[in-house]
Amino acid sequence: MAYFDYEGQRLAYTVFGEGGNTTILMPGLLLSQTMQVPLARELASRGNRVITFDPLGHGASDRPRDMWRYSMPAFAKQTVALFDHLELDQAIVGGTSLGANVTLEIGMLAPQRLRGMIIEMPVLDHAIPAAAAVFTPLLFGLTFGEPLSKLLARLARAVPRERAPFLLQIVLECLAQEPAPSGAVLQGVLFDRTAPPRAERRTIEAPALVIGHRRDPVHPFSDAGMLTDELPNARQIDANSVIELRLRPARLTAMIAEFVDECWSGATVSPSLTSAAVAPAAG
């Protein structure tokens, strides 16, 4: 893991693989870059350089308690600063949930630097009711139940993670964080815009791979479909579940890798990524 300074704060990233064709992957809200490591390793094994990145308040990056530091546009500026730190003219950028929405913000902030976008579980118009139902109690607990949250964090830090299942490792990392900065992240994200407005999203011309998940109210499938229709150069693949890319990643990873190759080669959409081929597998 490496770090760079941004406006007095230390931001963490990890490099997998070598070469000039770079993909940057970001985690979901309050999670760490650990969740993207398997995908990063697989893409790196195929000849790509992949960077996993913790925005401010996430993972190994600094976690100040000032809510004004946290927003989707702020995370986008941090990611562009990572471009500058690594001297990248262009990169493919992507992420899950929060990382997906930050990618859309980069499409507005620095469109000329986007080679492509990997957007998994975007949180847009149709997610508002479920997101409010999930994150409002969580914010309340982190803010007003800090003693209990601190106890839970200590317990999570005491659990050995080395041999834990991958999904449990991700959860334990999240629970082990001090609650006050996590509460500040939630406050900042909830009180700023979640994503660029629809009219702005329609202007993002970078090739986009949108990954939708059924039966997930916080990341509704209708948002993924809506975004695919809005973006001028987007195609969609449908996951079997919200955890397919983490537990049984082979199918989705193969299509992500093909998309990455297409972005760098400038090729047109492959027939294997058309709607007839990307429906979720049975079972």
Search tags:
single chain, 283 residues, alpha/beta, Rossmann fold, 11 helices, disordered C terminus
Report on the structure:
The protein is α/β, with parallel strands linked by helices and 283 residues long. It has one domain (2-264): Alpha/Beta hydrolase fold, catalytic domain (Rossmann fold). The chain is 43% helix and 17% strand. It is built from 11 helices and 8 strands. The protein has an 8-stranded mixed beta sheet with strand order 1-2-4-3-5-6-7-8, sandwiched between helices. Strand 3, helix 1 and strand 4 form a beta-alpha-beta unit. Helix 2 packs across helix 3 and helix 4 runs antiparallel to helix 7. The termini are far apart. The model is unreliable at 268-283 (pLDDT under 50).
> How many distinct helices?
11
Q: What's the CATH architecture?
A: 3-Layer(aba) Sandwich
**CATH homology group:** Alpha/Beta hydrolase fold, catalytic domain
Principal-axes shape call: globular
Spatial ordering of strands, largest sheet: 1-2-4-3-5-6-7-8
Mean pLDDT: 91
Rounded radius of gyration (Å):
18 Å
Order of helices and strands: EEEHEHEHEHHHHHEHEHH
Task: Classify the beta-strand content into a percent band.
Answer: 15-25%
Q: Helix share of residues?
A: 40-55%
Largest sheet descriptor? 8 strands, mixed
Which consecutive residue ranges, at least 5 long each, have pLDDT under 50? Answer: 268-283
Structural class: alpha/beta
What gap, in angstroms, lies between the N and C termini?
37 Å
